[in-house]
Amino acid sequence: MIDIRLIEECRGGNFNNFRKLVELTSPFAYSVAFRMLCNEDRAKDVVQETMVTIWQKLEKIKSAEVYKTWIYRIVINKCYDEMRKRKRNPEFMTDEITWEIISNRISEAPSATLENGETLKIISVLTNKLSNKQKAVFVLSDLEGMSNDEISEITGISKSAVKANLYHARRSIAEKVEKYL
Amino acid sequence: MKPGSEKYNKVLNLLRESKPLLDSTDDIEREVVRQIMKINHRRITIAGVFDFLFGWVYIGWVRRCLITASGAMVLVFVFQQIVIIRRIDMLSKQIVVVDKGSLSKQDDEVERILAGYRNFGRRFPSKTARISEIQMKELLESVNELKIRYKEIDDLIEGDPELKKLIEKKLIENNRNNTNL
Q1: Both ends of chain A: CA-CA distance in Å?
Q2: Which pLDDT tens digit goes with each residue over B108-140?
Q3: Cα–Cα distance for residue pair A67/A121, rounded to 1 Å
Q4: CA angle A164, A169, A174 (to 5 degrees)
Q5: Do A18 and A64 contact (CB within 8 A), yes or no?
Q6: A-chain residues within 8 Å CB-CB of B22?
Q7: Is the dihedral of CA A167, A168, A169, A170 positive or negative?
Q8: Which of B14, B21, B29 sits opposite A106 (nearest CB)?
Q9: What phi and psi values does residue A54 have, to the nearest 5 degrees?
Q10: Which of A66, A143, B81, B149 is 20 to 30 A from B17 in CA distance terms?
Q11: Which one, of A26, A180, A167, A8, lies nearest residue A103 by Cα?
């Protein structure tokens, strides 16, 4: 959890405190951006842009809870922008190799984890048919573990729309898992 | 397959457990600070240009001079407006000299009536008659009224043969008297 005092100190223009804020904020901002964009470099860019936006609008933050929601909102919006750009230049993904990786990993021990490269390939293959909203809702709910209320606040869509998007996203992914695994 | 199936849950758990790792926040910190410095520098540059162009308005004596000059300009403007209004008012009260040239744009009938008025009355030497616009209008109106009345009398005489005879008789008598005199 980010301390509100740290944010208040940053408002005074203290770069050392802001570095600390960047250090604390970057990991969870990166996690969402990475899972949304499925690209490490772009995710880092989004985190950088997010932090610059935070610096410019630190005055608006009233509490630590609001800060976290606000960060997620900025990250999601910047990811949407990136995804729109990427839609014009889609990346080619080899599905067969990815499904092989997934198959191997889930047959291993339950505690097995993936490397960044593998994670982005798997998420990309599973979510490539989803809309941006569906993907955002899926990432925030099933991968980041947020509640529907939080997702509604972050994405700016109603709770019923969150539920509907989540339902469609899960069904689409489940169908793929059944088909290829 | 439904979202709650075993394979689906395994894949999802695998993704949940595999948190994207941000190798180092130093690069992001450095880049963020660099971008912020760049933005601040740009702001300072713009502020410097504005100061250079308009900074002189903050000098006390310059500001006082500007206020005085603007006040003087307002006074001059008000004075000019008053003078103009007075002149317009004075001109509107003045008598307008009406001569042949000034009536050139009016129809021939008006010109003819005016010429007749001059010749018939002989009250004013030609080209020295001075009448106002209002008087001119009144004159034209009275001429028109006389014309209408003359027509009415003419119609009345034409419609009554006895009256016509009587008038003719009177006119002949008048002519005789004039000839005798």
Answers
A1: 38
A2: 666 666 666 666 555 555 555 667 788 888 889
A3: 31
A4: 125
A5: no
A6: 26-27, 30, 44, 47
A7: positive
A8: B14
A9: -60, -45
A10: A66
A11: A180
CB contact under 8 A, B33 and A19: yes
Rounded alpha-carbon distances, angstroms, from residue B19 to A42, A91, A119, A133, B74 = 17, 23, 9, 21, 71
All residues at 6 or more sequence positions from A23 whose CB lies less than 8 Å from its CB, including other chains: B25, B29
Of B7, B13, B36, the CB nearest to A181: B7
pTM assigned to the model: 0.59
Contact A81, A33 (CB under 8 A): no
State yes or no: ipTM above 0.85: no
Residue B80 Cα, gap to closest chain A Cα (Å): 52
Widest Cα–Cα separation across chain B: 147
The residue of chain B with its CA nearest to that of A169 is B3
Residues of A in contact with B17 (CB under 8 A): 111-113
* Two tokens, residue A62: 């009233």
User: Closest partner residue to A174 among B1, B19, B39, by Cβ?
Assistant: B1
Whether A75 shows a pLDDT value over 90: the answer reads yes
